[in-house]
Amino acid sequence: MIDDDAKERDVRSARVLLAGVRDAFEAGVLDLAGKCSAGNKLDARKLDEWQVASFEMAWAGAELLASETAVSTAAAPADLRTPLALLFTADAIASVLAKLEGLYLDLGLSLAPLRALRDRADWDALRLNFAGAGALSAAGTAVIAAQGEVGPVLGDESHALAQESFRRFAADQVAPQAEAIHRQDLTVPDALLQSMRDMGVFGLSIPERFGGSGPNDREDTLLMVLVTEALSEASLGAAGSLITRPEILSRALLAGGTPEQQARWLPRLAAGDPLCAIAMTEPDHGSDVASVSLRGTKVEGGWLLNGAKTWCTFAGKAGVLMVVTRTHPDRSLGHKGLSLVLVEKPSVNGHEFRCEQAAGGLLTGRAIPTIGYRGMHSFDLSFDDFFVPDGNVIGGEAGLGKGFYLTMAGMMGGRMQTAARACGVMRAALRASIRYAQDRRVFGKPLADFPLSQAKIARMGARLAVCQQLAYHVADLMDHGGGRVEASLVKLLACRSAEMITREALQLHGGMGYAEETPVSRYFVDARVLSIFEGAEETLALKVIARGLMERALDVAPSAA
């Protein structure tokens, strides 16, 4: 067992190591930025040529930021979070160095700085003390004793109370219905939706002056993250994802809606009446929002929509859809020709709907069968001369052509929510694994008493704790006007981490994990969607993170290109 003084030395040592890795990472980013730019500006053709290197760089950046955040805020040595932060850091440094070696080789850079880091005695000590076999068993035992309570302790009393309140609500109201909703592919029941309306979950991102629970003078992203995480622990599809849609739409309205639109829609969205859905993705364009082809043709008093959308979650139950549409006929304008329109429709419970207008317009929807993420259902939509009045164009005439920017105003919040959803699923999987490992006896003793089980649980606990810490940290950055790239980094890391943790949870359950009657099978299939929506992993890494990191590098050292 390592004493407290030794742990403090290890924390200091980890910070020094991470500083060295950060220097090597930034050198790689700068060199890659030079190869992807022309005239000190990133070049789209060159970026495509360097996609593999950019993807690895984005991942290295996510692991590095998570480690730096966890170690910089390491608590007292006796706190469980300290060894978990150092365990994650030991694993992450190994992963980042491996990625950087590949990147350096591709770039033609010398590997000497990376080999110097690998040869350091303090690096060997960190790995032995926190990722060695004995350390893993000790950490796993501690995580088991804590029943998976590994997350940061919140200093703000109001946030701590909200977290506890929503965890109780999720456990009492959502969790008992989660399995039936998933296995029977049901729509979220009206009674549960009403309970969530009563809890105010739909108004978390809407200022109090518009009937929401958000502050009037600032954002409270941390509260949204905490509530989303708590609800997602009980059910991703039946609760945890309900906040995302009003989050995106309300941010778009706050960023570009007319005063009349804000007064009309925000109080209703805060009350959860109507529920809303977001229609961005199209069958041929996926995450490439700028290539949207759904047409909006100007007619007297409004617009006729023609085209298709897909993966529009909760479109059946929703009473209003935020639709990204092309309102300028010149497709060469790309994202500058897009606008946002609000499509009103009846709310339906089924897996299909058909909305006919008196003038002949038609909107149809059909739920897409999925392996998980059930309860809200994602729909294919078809618009055929469907009329939308001028008053439902967000921003009115001044909003024409600004749809892409208004959509992006909500996407940072959506990505943070997705990271929070991932943390909730991870927490559920970890706690279920601990309970099962303690109850299940094999070869004469509890599964939890075996070193390999302890090692698995230790790494699960470390990954959850660090993802939570990073999510809370980035939420604070966003509330102070920053965090654009960081929100994407935490989304990237947390969503893949949810896949890893739920996979290990299912493995610890053995055959029972593969049975639908066990909740971990639901966590496993639900987690898989997280890396796909709110920006597919590849698009997020290449188009947002890598570009953002390289732009920063060029801004700091413009002569590099």
Rg, Å, rounded? 24 Å
What order do the SSEs take from the amino end to the carboxyl end, as H and E? HEEHHHHHHHHHHHHEEEEEEEEHEEHHHH
Structurally, how many domains make up the residues?
2
Shape, per Cα inertia axes? globular
Task: List unreliable stretches of 5+ residues.
Answer: none
How many strand segments?
Answer: 12
Strand portion: 5-15%
Q: Please tell me the CATH architecture of the largest domain by its name.
A: Up-down Bundle
What can be said about the biggest beta sheet?
Answer: 5 strands, antiparallel
User: Helical percent range?
Assistant: 55-70%
CATH class of the largest domain: Mainly Alpha
Provide the structure class. alpha+beta
* CATH level 4 superfamily of the largest domain: Butyryl-CoA Dehydrogenase, subunit A, domain 3
CATH fold-type name of the largest domain: Butyryl-CoA Dehydrogenase, subunit A, domain 3
Span of the ends, CA to CA: 50 Å
Strand arrangement across the biggest beta sheet: 4-5-10-9-8
Structure description:
The chain is α+β, with helices and mostly antiparallel strands and 561 residues long. It folds into two domains: 1-131 and 535-561, Up-down Bundle (Butyryl-CoA Dehydrogenase, subunit A, domain 3); 151-530, Butyryl-CoA Dehydrogenase, subunit A, domain 3, CATH 1.20.140. The chain has helices spanning 4-35, 44-49, 51-72, 81-107, 112-118, 121-131, 133-145, 157-183, 190-199, 221-234, 236-240, 244-256, 259-270, 403-439, 451-479, 484-509, 519-527, 537-556; strands at residues 37-38, 41-42, 276-279, 295-299, 302-313, 320-326, 338-344, 352-356, 362-367, 378-389, 441-442, 445-446. The strands form four sheets. Strands 4-5-10-9-8 form a five-stranded antiparallel beta sheet, with no helix packed on it. Strands 3-6-7 form a three-stranded mixed beta sheet. Strands 1-2 form a two-stranded antiparallel ribbon. α16 (484-509) packs antiparallel against α17 (519-527) and α16 (484-509) runs antiparallel to α18 (537-556). The model has no long low-confidence stretch (mean pLDDT 92).
